[in-house]
Amino acid sequence: MTKETKDSLVKGTLILTVAALVARFLGVFQRIPLVHLLHEGGMGSYSIAFNLYSILLVVATAGIPSALSKMVSEKYAIGRPAEAERIYRAAIWFAIVAGALMTALLYVFAPIYAERISHGGPDATLATRAIAPAMLFFPLIAIMRGYFQGRQNMMPNGVSQVVEQIFRLVTSIGLAFILLNISLGWGVAGASFGGVMGGIAALAVMLYYAMKLRRRDAASLKENVSRAAAEETAAGRSTASAATPARYSEIYRSLLKLSIPIVIFSVTVTLVYAIDTSIIIPLLEGTIGSGEALGLVGIIGGRAQSLAGIPIILAIALSQSVVPIISAAYSRKDMKQVGHQTTRVLQLSILSGLPAVLVIAIAARPLDFFMFGHEDTAYGMSHGPYMISLLTLGAMFQIVMQTSGAVLMGMGRMKPLMLHVAVGIAVKLAGSFLLAPWLGIYGIIGSTGLCFIAMSWLNLRTLRKEVRFTILGRRFIGLTISIVVIAGLGVAAEWLTHTYVQPTGLYRINEGINAVLVCGFTAALYPLMLMLTRVVTKDDVKNFPAPVQKLIGKASRLIGRS
Questions:
Q1: How many domains does the chain contain in total?
Q2: For 380-397, what is each residue's pLDDT tens digit?
Q3: Which residue spans traverse the membrane (predicted)?
Q4: Residue 149: inside a domain, yes or no?
Q5: Which residues contact 248 (CB under 8 A, 6 or more apart)?
Q6: Three-state secondary structure along 398-447?
Q7: 558 inside domain
Q8: Helix (H, G, I), strand (E, B) or coil at 89
Q9: Is the pTM of this model over 0.85?
Q10: Which residue ranges in the chain fall short of pLDDT 70?
């Protein structure tokens, strides 16, 4: 791979990572006032609607943009821009039809899912129908993002994500505040409708960049046509007629063949989270009551899933960047390079994701109470932080699943990957129904972790049959020691601050101070322990993002090893 290609990948990954971080931050920030306005019951209805919408959105969009990106980049690489544009137009029509169908499906079947399956009540139905029009826009946005990715232009994708979240945040909070004067159900619907406004704003951004690119392409085409005509005239040849354009049916066949496996893999996490919000009330209302169970749905969807989604952001960006690298090396039968890149991406994703997992899991109580406030009930208050911790710990295995799955995708090993997804979902369902009567909400959350563990193990087992790689090797012992020490000291620090650090009369200010102290202490311990136990070497540090390199360098100097 040339330096130019590497630089392009690094730049694209950096743009997507920064955009994802900003969008995730805005998404978490949005939940803070919504939790205050809607409380746990309202957030339960909101989460039921949002997770169903997320599943249909993934089904309608995931895979097609990736397949479109691959096909467009290939056509431009071999000098056939007209074919690339025809593929793009076909995908646009697909997005319009898919969006209309998914909107109608979401609106019509909202009561069945929200009330009969999830037991969320009429408020959940109203919230689901309020967010349904967003499906008109997001398939189209996803197709445009895939096209720009194929043109090696990541900026529109990143900007549109951030603008979408800004408009979603402002309108969700504003409409929830205004419509709560009517009823709680209308307030929840207003919060859901913020997704529609976010979609409109994101589409406006994509259309702006599309028109900008079209003007640039027109100028470039005019210049190329003039040059080609001059060359043809000088050579005494006539321009050959264009090749017969591909039929839309052929284009759709190619797109679907590439995209369906990607959809199945991409929908996994969203589906697992939706299963959680769908089964909590049916499984637990008999023991804790429907009101408490709906509150737990609000805690899971409004608090835990938001925070647990932070550590996987870098893993997703790494997964997006490693697929073309693995694919190119595998197509050349360069298995040594495949093994090297597999080792590199797994190590980097684990070592980069682990500190966020530890920080959030250990500081769950002060983070929860500072960001969202105390839960509405004594039951929720006593269990909420532990639910966040447990779900965040499971995100570590989600990181391994995501990156190992991306490697399999790059190698074209989609059949085993789809089988692993099926096994993981089966483990999730079986674990939830078996463990919930025994462990309650922790059985449901624990089964989510078991799902990701099963998929990770199956992915790694399949990879080992194809290529030689190591994740950490002998350094696994040092990493285990580091985790145990950090967890022990971090939990002790959290207990001490929670018990003794209460400098003001305002509990949220106190919890904010405690969150800063615990998070800072845990984050500082991480590079120190990695260096002390020799888990991280100088070669590993060179592959880390620049800010992480600086942090580890300072930690290294602190303990006297440069």
A1: 1
A2: 788 889 999 999 999 999
A3: 12-30, 50-69, 90-110, 130-148, 169-187, 193-211, 262-284, 304-327, 348-367, 387-410, 417-435, 441-460, 472-493, 513-532
A4: yes
A5: 90, 93
A6: HHHHHHHHHHHHHCCCHHHHHHHHHHHHHHHHHHHHHHHHHHCHHHHHHH
A7: no
A8: helix
A9: no
A10: 1-17, 59-63, 221-244, 314-325, 327-328, 331, 537-562
